[in-house]
Amino acid sequence: RPRVFSGIQPTSGSFHLGNYLGAVRNWVAMQDEFDGLYCVVDQHAITVEQDPAVLRRRSQVAAAQLLAAGLDPQRCTLFVQSHVPGHAQLAWVMNCITGFGEASRMTQFKDKSARHGVGAATVGLFTYPMLMAADILLYQADYVPVGEDQRQHLELSRDLAQRFNSRYGETFVVPKPYIIKDTGKILDLQDPASKMSKSAESEAGLIELLADPKVNAKKIKSAVTDAEREIRFDEENKPGISNLLRIYAALDGRSIKELERAYAGHGYGDLKKDLAELVVSTFGAFKERTEAILAEPDKLDAIFAEGAQRARALAAPTLDLAYDRLGFLPAV
Ligand code: ATP
Ligand code: MG
């Protein structure tokens, strides 16, 4: 089975609809056909300051949500990044084969650092893409199922794998992006120029899977649209409505074309009302399932322990090979 790796940051109390449709849902769907490694990337989370108690809790909540969404630790490897030291070890190697100019071109760093001024950003935020490359290459992953926002980072991972291979000899599989066209970029409901994001300035445009259903319904009903009346998919001129149609189609099974036909002659209010109901019913039991998993912390710890053990065993030979190729003396 082809190998798949992906990760999610424990940077919020709940996944949002973009995380779910762009990433997590596909991880669940890929479990049987692929050999999946799914990781709560706590080391990525500390690229911005985190409260330790909150971080600890959010890592548990992230894993519980992955299980509630349908990941099955019998069929995939679910683990926490900091439990496998190889990620940080290989990240250093990646840092040393990345050009400073190359890293400076990463748009996510530019966007995230601009919020507080580049001078206030950590070096960790700058080297985030190299840690991400290490995450993927450490497991010789063939595919990386992520949202569209990660495409540039994945391109860098591929460049680094190829660079290492051509300098030091075949070592890493060159990973391919696995990005679903229709759901790879879910937009903020209040600001359809930006992607829905855990670290958005305002929560108003965010559908959080663990939020009160009434709050989510209200957010959908007050989503930003446009001054027309026609329900039509047109990303350029109608980004708000197009985003709602994308979400609707992803959850409903009907295509966007079919939805356009079904809502011909209807107003935006009808679309929003139906979509709000669909979202509420789709995630109706998600919170309960997540809470039930969190209520058994020993079971969760056992899943983490087993996942870390499997991940460490998979990572070790690749790290050894990379170290050897680089000219590091064997540790005997
Ligand atoms: P942050 O803003 O803190 O980076 P995030 O919302 O981007 O948070 P991540 O943990 O960085 O969440 O990303 C987890 C996965 O979700 C990644 O594969 C990412 O590409 C995907 N993803 C994030 N936002 C969206 C979105 N709006 N649409 C589709 N996929 C998304
Ligand atoms: Mg992100």
Question: Which helices and strands occur, and which strands form pairs?
Answer:
Elements: E1 3-8, H1 17-30, E2 35-40, H2 42-45, H3 52-69, E3 77-80, H4 86-97, H5 100-104, H6 107-114, H7 123-137, E4 143-145, H8 151-168, E5 176-178, H9 213-221, H10 239-252, H11 256-262, H12 268-282, H13 286-294, H14 297-326
Parallel strand pairs: 1-2, 2-3, 4-5
Helix pairs in contact: 3-13, 4-7, 7-8, 9-12, 10-12
Bound molecules: adenosine-5'-triphosphate and magnesium ion (MG).
Catalytic activity: tRNA(Trp) + L-tryptophan + ATP = L-tryptophyl-tRNA(Trp) + AMP + diphosphate + H(+)
EC number: 6.1.1.2
Protein name: Tryptophan--tRNA ligase
Molecular structure report:
The protein is mainly alpha-helical and 332 residues long. The chain is 54% helix and 7% strand. The strands form two sheets. It has a three-stranded parallel β-sheet. Strand 1, helix 1 and strand 2 form a beta-alpha-beta unit. The protein is globular. It starts with a strand and ends in a 6-residue tail after the last helix. The structure holds adenosine-5'-triphosphate and magnesium ion. The site of adenosine-5'-triphosphate has 19 residues, from helix 1.
User: What percent of the residues sit in helical stretches (DSSP H or I)?
Assistant: 40-55%
Number of strands: 5
Cofactors and ligands: adenosine-5'-triphosphate, magnesium ion
Shape: globular
- Name the strands of the widest sheet in spatial order: 1-2-3
Q: Can you count the helices?
A: 14
Low-pLDDT segments, ≥5 res: none
Protein name: Tryptophan--tRNA ligase
GO molecular function: ATP binding; tryptophan-tRNA ligase activity
Main location: cytoplasm
InterPro entries: aa-tRNA-synth_I_CS, aa-tRNA-synth_Ic, Rossmann-like_a/b/a_fold, Trp-tRNA-ligase, Trp-tRNA-ligase_bac-type, Trp-tRNA_synthetase
